[in-house]
Each structure stands twice: as structure tokens, then as C-alpha cells.
Amino acid sequence: MATSVKLDEDLKTRIRRLAEIRHRSSHWIMREAIRDYVEREEKRESFKRDALRAWEAYQENGRHLTLEEADAWLAKLEAGEDAKLPECHT
Q1: Confidence tier at 62 by pLDDT (50, 70, 90)
Q2: How far apart are CA 32 and CA 50, in angstroms?
Q3: How crowded is the C-beta side of 75, counted as CA atoms within 13 Å?
Q4: Residue 70 is inside which H or E element, if any?
Q5: DSSP 32
Q6: In sequence order, which residues have a C-beta less than 8 Å from that of residue 76 and are 6 or more positions away?
Q7: How far apart are CA 66 and CA 69, in angstroms?
Q8: Domain segments of the chain: what residues?
């Protein structure tokens, strides 16, 4: 499927310059940039959906971890310990 995108001259020049440096075509640079953008935005949307579901679950049941509990668990993981996620509570 062919798609057209109108770019200003400055952006076209920057893309051409980058393509030359990378020994790639301008088409390749644009395709990679669009792919990276779409993947990043899909992950962002997924994160937002997960956060909203977590918020809704919290509103329904009140189960949570405190900041201190989460920080302590993450510190153990960062130190290389095989730490189990603490139990949520109300």
C-alpha cells in the first residue's frame, strides 16, 4: 500500500542527511521512524489502559500497597534478591 506524506523542506533535508550518514534510503528512515512512533504510542495506550483498570479495581476493592511497601520490594529486586511481591491489603 502506497501512502503519501507531505513534509516541509527542512524535514526532508534532515531525513536525507540522516539517510546518507546511516547508508540507508530516506524511505527506510521514514518507515523506521513511523514504526518506532506507532510502537511507542501503542505501549503508552496499553499502559494507560492498565492504569485505568488498576484504578477501577482499587476503587472497587480498596486493595493496595503503600509507597513504602512498593519501594522496599523494588529495592530488593534491584539488589538482585528474588523478592516476592507483597500481599495487597485494604
Answers
A1: very high
A2: 27
A3: 6
A4: helix 67-78
A5: H
A6: 83
A7: 5
A8: 9-62
Q: Sort 77 into a burial class: Cβ within 10 Å, 0-12 / 13-18 / 19+.
A: exposed
Q: Amino acid letter at 78? A: E
Pair 58, 64: CB distance under 8 Å: yes
Task: Read off the DSSP letter of residue 77.
Answer: H
The pTM for the full model equals 0.73
Please write the tens of the pLDDT for every residue from 33-56.
999 999 999 999 999 999 999 999
How would you class 73 by CB atoms within 10 Å of its CB: exposed for 0-12, middle for 13-18, buried for 19 or more? middle
Measured distance CA(46)–CA(69) in Å, rounded = 25
Q: Which amino acid is at 90?
A: T
